[in-house]
Amino acid sequence: MNRNFWIIALISFINALSFTILIPVLYLYGKQFNLDDFQISFIFAIYAISQFFATPIIGKLSDRFGRKPLLIISLAGTVIANFMAGTATTAALLFFARFLDGITGGNASVAQAVISDVTSPENRAKAFGINGAAFGLGFILGPAISLLAQKAALNTPLGKSFGASFLVSSVIAAIALFLTIFFLPETLKTKAKKAKNIFDIGLEQLIKGLFMPKIGILLIVNFLTGMTFTVFTFAFQPYFLAVLKQNSDSLTLMFFMFGVLAVIVQTLGIAQMTKRLQLAEILFLGLFIRSLSFVLMPIWENIYYFVAVCILFSLFNSVVQPMISALISLNAKPEEQGTVLGLNSSYLSASNAFGPIIAGLMVHQSNPQSYGYPLYFAGVCTFLVLIFLFLKRETYSYQKL
Questions:
Q1: Using CB atoms within 10 A of its CB, is residue 31 exposed (0-12), middle (13-18) or buried (19+)?
Q2: Are 51 and 354 in contact (CB under 8 A)?
Q3: What letter would DSSP give residue 245?
Q4: CA-to-CA distance for 290 and 284, rounded, in angstroms?
Q5: pLDDT, tens digit, for every residue of 29-68?
């Protein structure tokens, strides 16, 4: 791996840190504005919906004008949006801030395009694994920093407001922006031709992507796996807090554990797996354990049992997204990396919009047991996705690297 790869990996880590700081508090911050569970699901969804429309455009523009300028725009949007969210006085302003962060939030797909630019095909899966580990490392430190931000805010005018985490997130995103401006060179070697009309960089691309040989099936799988995962992520926090009777500090420790295990798997595990297994086989294994874990989680309302299942889940779930991204990247032309990975992120964002709303419709605050329903649903749907992926295995590349 060359110098430019490690620079973008560092930027990805800082960007992930900015994002993961918000994970333990977004649900609780919505409660601070007296929103119910269904309304809070839209705080999750509005960010994803706006990303859905923005990321293919940002990806296409990065193929046309270069990775660096689009990455700068995306990170600047995160800085401004999270500052607005952290100082919000109304739910409407919070919703707008999440929308703004989403509409400029194509930095993940651009970062993936940079990785594709600077790595060889045989190192692509390993590179995406390391990039995923950077996100996992952010998962370790982000929730802990979020907790520290809440403690520090107690002695400030913010008091017990969970907005402190958004302000810290804004500052950290500003660091990633600084590194991008001053240290990351432009990595795009071959620029795409100028688009003839707006549809070449907009919604039409979402439809075209489904008909790309080998790529289309993987975009569908990414959408479906993303949807089932976000059903879980929305239901996880209220289940942990309301059903298992845990507090926000314990919730932070859970995210810390998820991050530690993800980093171990994505830095060491994927490299070993790819020596013995095809990429699709690793993906099959990850999806099978994910589906099994979702179903097992709510069966017994015991914190020790729940943590044990979560450990199993985290170990194998960590390979899913890197494998999908690697397979998509390996089947895309060099000049289409930004476009295809932008489409990938866009479909993932769409799935992130549907998941919380589906979970929000299933749960009822008056019946805490209902917080387990989305977990069962996510498990069954993930298994169906696995069957679909297996049956369609001949339509995409899954060669051993």
A1: middle
A2: no
A3: -
A4: 10
A5: 888 898 988 899 888 889 888 877 777 778 778 888 888 9
Q: Give the integer Cα–Cα distance in Å for 4 and 7.
A: 5
Q: Is the pLDDT of residue 198 over 50?
A: no
The model's pLDDT over 28-39, given as tens digits with 9 standing for 90+, comes to 888 889 898 889
**CA distances to 87, 167, 363 from 341, in Å:** 33, 29, 33
CB atoms inside a 10 Å sphere around CB 96: 16
- Whole-number percent of the chain with pLDDT over 90: 24
* Amino acid identity for residue 73 in this structure: I
| This prediction's pTM | 0.75
| CA 35 and chain centroid, separation | 24
Q: What is the secondary structure of 155-196 as a DSSP string?
A: TSTTTT-THHHHHHHHHHHHHHHHHHHHHPPP---SPPPPPS
Helix axis angle for 373-391 and 215-238, nearest 10°, is 170
Given this model, what pLDDT does residue 373 score?
Answer: 94
Closest to 47 measured CA to CA, from 85, 8, 7:
85
Q: Is the dihedral of CA 333, 337, 341, 346 positive or negative?
A: negative
Q: Are 143 and 165 in contact (CB under 8 A)?
A: no
Q: What's at 370, amino acid-wise?
A: S
Q: Give residue 244's pLDDT.
A: 93
**pLDDT at residue 399 tops 60:** no
